[in-house]
Amino acid sequence: MKLAGLTVAYWCVLVTALLPMGCAWLAKSGLMTKPRRDGGFDNHNPRAWLSSQTDWRARANAAQANTFEALPFFIGAVIIAHQLGAVQLRVDVLAFVFVVLRLLYVMLYVADLASARSLVWALALLVNIAILFV
User: Fold this and answer.
1) What distance separates the 2 farthest-apart alpha carbons in the chain?
2) How far apart are CA 108 and CA 129, in angstroms?
3) Handedness of CA 76, 126, 5, 104 (dihedral sign)
4) How far is Cα 39 from Cα 28, in angstroms, rounded to an integer?
5) pTM over 0.70
6) Residue 74 pLDDT greater than 90, yes or no
7) In the beta sheet, which residues pair with residue 7?
8) Which of the 8 DSSP states describes residue 34?
């Protein structure tokens, strides 16, 4: 299936590529307008500011890093599946499931549900591997 010339799987690549930015936004949310001197977001040194965060903001930042780490394998799997002529519906469904699992992963990470998060991470990895073999 195609929408605006892209398959569903390619749209999933776009969503997955934007996911780290969503995690960064979440980590910074509510503090963008607060002055730096009062602990608000420091756009002059954003990485140091993010690394000094605690609790759910720190976990959102860690989720951001992990979403970046997962991105190359997912992009590669989708492109390889397309190049090898895999059944498009299968690639689309698996890519969509991957996106859903990664969104769930971020939510579980921020909520500090470590065991469930690890399980979802493993399922997303298996789905990604499955994309290679469809």
Assistant:
1) 56
2) 22
3) negative
4) 11
5) yes
6) yes
7) 2
8) S
User: Residue 3 — left, alpha, or beta (φ > 0 → left; ψ -120 to 50 → alpha)?
Assistant: beta
Instruction: Please determine, for residue 66, whether its predicted confidence score (pLDDT) is greater than 70.
Output: yes
- How do beta strands 2-3 and 6-7 pair? antiparallel
- Report domain extents, the chain: 2-132
Task: Please count the other Cβ atoms lying within 10 Å of the Cβ belonging to residue 31.
Answer: 17
Q: Is 41 helix (H, G, I), strand (E, B) or coil?
A: coil
- Label residue 81 left, alpha or beta by phi (over 0 means left) and psi (-120 to 50 means alpha): alpha
The residues near 39 (Cβ < 8 Å, ≥ 6 apart) are 31
End-to-end CA distance of the chain: 16
CA distance linking residue 60 with residue 77, whole number of Å:
26
Pick the CATH number of 2-132 from 1.20.1250.20, 1.20.120.550, 1.50.40.10, 3.90.79.10: 1.20.120.550
Backbone angles phi, psi at 21, to 5 degrees: -70, -35
3-state secondary structure of 77: helix
Q: How confident is the model at residue 73, as a pLDDT?
A: 97
